[in-house]
Amino acid sequence: MREMKILSPTAILGYGFPMASWEEGMRRKPDVIAVDAGSTDPGPYYLGAGISFTDRAAVKRDLAIMIPAALDASIPLIIGSAGGSGALPHLQWNREIIEEIAAEKDLTFTLAVIPGDIDKKTILSAMEEGRILPLHPAPELTQADVTDAAHIVAQMGTEPIIRALDEKAQVVLAGRAYDPAVFAAVAVREGYDRGLAVHLGKILECAAIAATPGSGSDCMIGYLGGDYFRVEPLSAGRKCTTLSVAAHTLYEKTNPYILPGPGGILDLTQTVFTQETETCVRVTGSRFFPSDTYTIKLEGVKKVGCRTVSFASTADPVMIAQIDAITPAVKARVRDNFTGMDNYSLDFKIYGKPAQSGTQGIFAASYVGIIDALPAVIDCAVSPENADCSVPSDNTDCAAPPSGADCTLHGATSAELAIIIDAVAPTQEMANTICSFARSTLLHYGYPGRISTAGNLAFPFSPSDVKMGDVYAFCVYHLMEVTNPCEFFPIEYIRLGCCAPEARVYTAKPEVKA
Amino acid sequence: MTYQLSNLADVIRSKNSGPYELTFDIIFKTQAIYEAVIKSEAITKESFAALYGISPGNVMEIVHFDPAKAIKITIVRPICSGDLRETDVYGAQQHAPLMHFSFTMEDAC
Questions:
Q1: % of chain B surpassing 90 pLDDT
Q2: pLDDT computed for residue A385 by the predictor
Q3: With 0-12 CB in 10 A as exposed, 13-18 as middle and 19+ as buried, what is A503?
């Protein structure tokens, strides 16, 4: 079997790559250039707001190099999870960049655009028919999660991309896609082993991150044969080692041996990593087991409110020692001042406390799952009547310190704490109010033993408060059973360049088999 | 002998595995150390849960991955990534308690 070559220029479209590395990749005459743009890592905001987490100029730079090179070499360029989250606004954003490049460079080619958005009615029907499967530990899906969602996308597999290639698309712009799919599509289409193709895609999707030293902004090439694949970085000074490649298999995965994806499971229990040359690793034994029912993974988010934050710090050792009593008291004071306004969340994010196992950050937060509605002041355990620390600032009497407070200085303390005041409320104005009042209350709060009576906080900025706009939360993270892998991924073909405008666009109806 | 994990590993890291899971990778310096740590049974659902102050039931899997001489622990994320109490959206800075983890085992060197 002829060895197929797959070039992965960068870990995320827009992360860039050195030209020398890119030119070396093209010199090796790849059969396809593929790049993944997506991730849920940056959190729910980008999918909800329809905004890319990568920069437009950086994405255009990468594509302005890739598109002409792919056309010159007569090989496809496949882009997955456009704009990071791969919903319609992201797809449109990326499509405009491609159209700009085509116009500026006077290029003529067929672009296939494959949206990954799933209609809410489709999901609600699937729920009724029992075709929505939970993905532990995500909570059970409710109808409200679906109807309230801002965007719901599904990760497509290789099949819709293969259809676009069958229709002679030269550049494929896919919405949300399973990361390895864009790398594996050409190989699967030509009959290469699916297990090896998908495993190779898993490694290539992060480009040179699987090399050592690793990099998310450098090229990697994969060679796929009948019963093996090889991976090699393209910059001098990097190499793939069995350890770097095997270690990458662990990255961001639940179980490195069993990797579920659209249509089946990638099984790495028999996989063997061998050092072939100093810079190249050979992999064998990776297997794909199709599932009885084809499933696609849904991702959806909903808006939960608007956020205003204030960045501050304290260097006062007396205050630092009491911080866990002071912030609940400030919350209580805010609540007391705005009686009747309880549909908000006020959180003090404190960075820099002395290490205590498992009690900081997210491990101090109880699992609340999806937010159905904005809760009242979260974790305001101290009610006004027992919040001793809400007494006026002239109380420096240590005889009755608030619960958890201590006027003596602890041995193990921090030189400084970063404090982010985080207010989320149904409207921006309300979030501004809560943040502003919490900030001024904390700034002048009279905790026991206070000697720095001019102000409790250091602010790096003026203005001190920042409006962060809409806040989203994940609400859909489930599998949906489908009868056809292409069913929900219609393909639009756009002829860019030479043709008359009316001849440029046509949409292929998704093929639906019984 | 008592060992601290940070002295035995080349890599100790944490990261989201999807928005609802947090996964920890420990890649050991040598095959011998990797095998000794496994043999010691120091890293269990119970010991990991105690280290992070969570319920052992929320430790989903502990996998020994021979090709990378690595132990991988995946837990239920205390909150979904980006929820209101979030302090680490990517989950990439939750590894520190693991660096300090100390345990006794037979001499690995």
A1: 96
A2: 36
A3: exposed
- The string of pLDDT tens digits covering residues A286-328 is 999 999 999 999 999 999 999 999 999 999 999 999 999 999 9
- Position A212 scores a pLDDT of 96
Instruction: Using DSSP, state whether B25 is helix, strand or coil.
Output: strand
Tell which B residues from 13 to 42 touch A, by Cβ distance under 8 Å: 15-21, 23, 25, 27
pLDDT at position A359: 55
- Range from A147-161, A240-254, A373-387, A457-471 carrying the lowest mean pLDDT: A373-387
Position A230, amino acid: R
Strand partners of residue A481: A295
| Beta carbons of B87 and A361 less than 8 Å apart | yes
Q: How far is CA A179 from CA A37, A79, A352, in A?
A: 8, 10, 36
Query: What ipTM was estimated for this complex?
Result: 0.93
3-state secondary structure of A52: coil
Distance between B1 CA and the closest CA of chain A, angstroms: 22
Give Cβ neighbours of residue A158 (< 8 Å, ≥ 6 apart).
A181, A184, A185, A188, A189, A262
Question: At which residue do the structure tokens 């079997």 appear?
Answer: A1
- In this prediction the pTM is 0.89
Residues 58-87 of B with CB under 8 A from A: 58, 60-61, 63, 65, 67-70, 72, 74, 76-87
∠ CA(B80), CA(B82), CA(B86), 5° rounding? 90
Cβ–Cβ below 8 Å for A362 and B77: yes
Share of chain A above pLDDT 70, in %: 86
Looking at residue A220, its amino acid is M
Asked if residue A117 has pLDDT above 60, the reply is yes
Neighbours of B76 (CB within 10 A): 19
- Give the pair of three-digit tokens for residue A401: 């310190």
Contacts of B63 in chain A (CB under 8 A): 255-257
Nearest CA in chain B to A420: B87
Q: Answer for the pair A424, A345: CB distance below 8 angstroms, yes or no.
A: yes
Residues of B in contact with A254 (CB under 8 A): 17-18, 21, 23, 60-61, 74
Per-residue buried b or exposed e for A444-467, using 16+ beta carbons within 10 Å of the residue's own CB: ebbbbbbeeeeebbeeeeeebbee
Chain A closest CA to B54's CA: distance in Å?
8
Beta bridge partners of A37: none
State which amino acid sits at residue A466: V
- Within an 8 Å CB–CB cutoff, is residue A250 touching chain B? yes
Interface test with A, best of B24, B30, B83 (most A CBs within 10 A): B83
Which has the closest alpha carbon to A38: A163, A205, A250, A200?
Answer: A205
AA letter at A343: N
Q: Which candidate in B4, B12, B13, B20 is best for mutational testing of the A interface (most A CBs within 10 A)?
A: B20
At B3-59, the pLDDT tens digits run 999 999 999 999 999 999 999 999 999 999 999 999 999 999 999 999 999 999 999
> Helix and strand tally (H, E) in chain A?
12, 20
Q: For residue range A222-275, list pLDDT tens digits in order.
A: 999 999 999 999 999 999 999 999 999 888 788 899 999 999 999 999 999 999
CA dihedral A20, A25, A28, A32 (to 10 degrees): -150
Average pLDDT, chain A: 89
* B82 to A472: CB separation less than 8 angstroms, yes or no: yes
Gyration radius of chain B's alpha carbons: 14
